[in-house]
Amino acid sequence: MAGESRDLERMLGDPKGAIHSMLLPLIVSYMVVQINLFADTSWCSGLGADASSAVSTISPFYWIVSGLGTGLGIGAATAIARYLGRGEKHNADRLASQTVVLSVILGVATTPILLLMVDPAISMMGAQDVAAECREYILPQIIAGTVVILDGTVSGVIRSEGAAKRSMVMLLVAAAVNMVLDPVMIYGLDLGLTGAGWATAIASASSAALGLWWYRRGRLYLTMSLKDMRPNWADMKEILYVGIPRGTESMLISVMSMVQRIFVIACGGTSAAMFYNIPWRFVSISEVVSQAVGSALIPVCSAALGKKDFAKAETGFRYSLTLTMIVMTAIAAVLFVFADWVIIPFTYSESMVEFRPEFAHVLRIYALLIPFIGMIDIGSSILQSLRLAQISMLSSFARNVLIVVMLFFASSVSLDAIYWSLFVAEVVGGLLMLWLAREGFRHYRHGREKPESA
Questions:
Q1: CB–CB of 137/55 below 8 Å?
Q2: pLDDT, tens digit, for every residue of 335-385?
Q3: C or N: which end of the chain has fewer Cβ atoms within 10 Å?
Q4: Would you put residue 284 in left (φ > 0), alpha (ψ -120 to 50) or beta?
Q5: Rounded-to-integer distance, Cα 328 and Cα 130, Å
């Protein structure tokens, strides 16, 4: 328990030190997730162009499921960290237990809905030529949706008490399980894309089970109990106040990604979905930085705001943004220069080699927008810590509508026009999210300092 108390004390201390202490474990965590996705995509690429196109086309469905877990986890982290900042451990314990109940309810409710949506979504995107491959890959992950959601929520609860290293271990376990099972199930058991889907589902279940076991054994600061797991709608409402907008934001992004693929496929066929999506893996891996900083920012600054220490919260916000922009700009420069080399893991099979120059070209365009993705993530995290997640959601919705509108017109021109349209929309979205975060904090601080000065 002493180690877990130190995690909490560190989180409630100097914001720069607190963010730093959580940053390395979180970066390792998110990096492992992205390496895991790289490995998944690379193994599936060995099955040929149709398999790669299917994974690229249907992957937003997985992000809908995992986004629900992430949203609940962030909602819980924001609420729990505020209670911990005020020294109300008993309330924090109760919210942690309610988060688990809520994630199970959400998983059971959404799984049949998503199963019914798969075929219509494939038809809507015009991907009927790879429909069988899409179903093989995504159905296992939807069937296991409850454990995927639970994995995200338990990880969020653990981060709420500053135990980023424990969260890292959870993700390391998930990645290790997935990396071992991928080649075994795809090729060893000859399950193909179905094997890849089940490997991901089993990995999520392993990670969630580990986190819950820690709580069961009293290895963490917070305590979960069966008594506190009786549904409490007031507590659930508090979690969902941030969780619903954040989860909806993730869902909107995933749904809009499917809509984007309609125009991409209409312009260049199902192979165009590969060009559009696979280079984005490198944007995602660069996003490890902004996601890690944002995940550290939320509990640290939420705890500071719980104590009404606005100076500490502002220091955390500024430091997070500066650090993110420096690192992500450097990553963008490296990817731009070495695009021809870094794309090789996705083009090693004979059927993929001919596409390598196009992949590198798209990656160079995407590299230019990476710093603006960092602005989006940090701005969104600031708004979530302020309990203004609905503003972040609306900003994401506006950005994605802009992307869809621009892609609609660009699809009648060329794939190049589509790539550059995405670039312009992400730049606008990054600047908008950052401005909203700045204004949100200014209004939040003014509204809470004014009564005290009266």
A1: yes
A2: 999 988 888 877 766 667 777 888 899 999 999 999 999 999 999 988 888
A3: C
A4: alpha
A5: 35
* pLDDT higher than threshold 70 for residue 449: no
pLDDT at 430 > cutoff 90 = yes
3-state secondary structure at position 119: helix
For every residue of 105-172, DSSP letters joined together read: HHHHHHHHHHHHHHHHHHHHTT-GGGHHHHHHHHHHHHHTHHHHHHHHHHHHHHHHTT-HHHHHHHHH
In angstroms, the Cα distances linking 345 to 337, 348, 352, 359 are 17, 6, 10, 11
User: What is the per-residue pLDDT across 381-414, written as a single tens digit (0 to 9) for each?
Assistant: 888 888 887 888 889 889 989 999 999 999 999 9
Largest Cα separation within the chain, whole Å, is 73
Q: 31 with 281: CB under 8 angstroms?
A: no
Let me know: does 352 contact 266? Beta carbons within 8 Å.
no
- From CA 308, how far away is CA 305, in angstroms rounded? 5
Token digits of residue 110 = 């959404």
**In Å, what is the CA distance from 405 to each residue of 249, 275, 394, 398?**
18, 20, 16, 11
For residue 309, what are the contacts with CB-CB under 8 A and spacing of at least 6?
none
Side-chain-side CA neighbours of 112 within 13 Å: the count stands at 3
Taking a C-beta distance cutoff of 8 angstroms, is the pair 288, 37 a contact? no
58, two tokens: 């249907």
Q: How far apart are CA 268 and CA 272, in angstroms?
A: 5
Amino acid at 41: T
Q: What's the rounded Cα separation, in Å, for the pair 79 and 157?
A: 10
CA distance 426 to 370: 9
Output the six-digit token pair for 244.
């619903």
Do the beta carbons of residue 22 and residue 296 sit within 8 Å? Answer: yes
Query: What's the one-letter identity of residue 193?
Result: L
